[in-house]
Amino acid sequence: MNRNINTKVLLEGNIMTKIKLEHIDNLRQGKKSGSKIGSRWVPHHLYKYEEEKYKRALKYRFLEITNKDRVNLRNIWQKVCLVKWWKNYVLMKNLEQAHAIIYLSDLPQMSGDIKSMKQVIKDYV
Questions:
Q1: 3-class DSSP state for residue 46?
Q2: Which of 12, 20, 43, 86 is the S-S candidate for 72 at Cβ 3.0 to 4.6 Å?
Q3: CA–CA separation, 62 vs 124, rounded Å?
Q4: Domain boundaries defined on the chain
């Protein structure tokens, strides 16, 4: 596999596609990706407040969302992690109960109060 920083290989069904972060940026803005990695049935477009969470996730290498956020951000984050060869860490916060769950590739790994889970995920990454 080509491990060039700009080009990665993504397995989508049975199709192998070379994708770049620019393709994901197009999806994020609601445009065609240019490499057939998006689907009309899977939402990817991000709103302005989601863009801030996305940029923070790129900086810290994990996505921090609440249980009320749209699935779009998780869809984009999944593709970013594939392109950058990162582990897909997501911190899902339930603000009403002050509880958080750490997910790795959509599988729950650990749960607890928000502050301690945030520190745990920073230690992992």
A1: coil
A2: 43
A3: 10
A4: 8-124
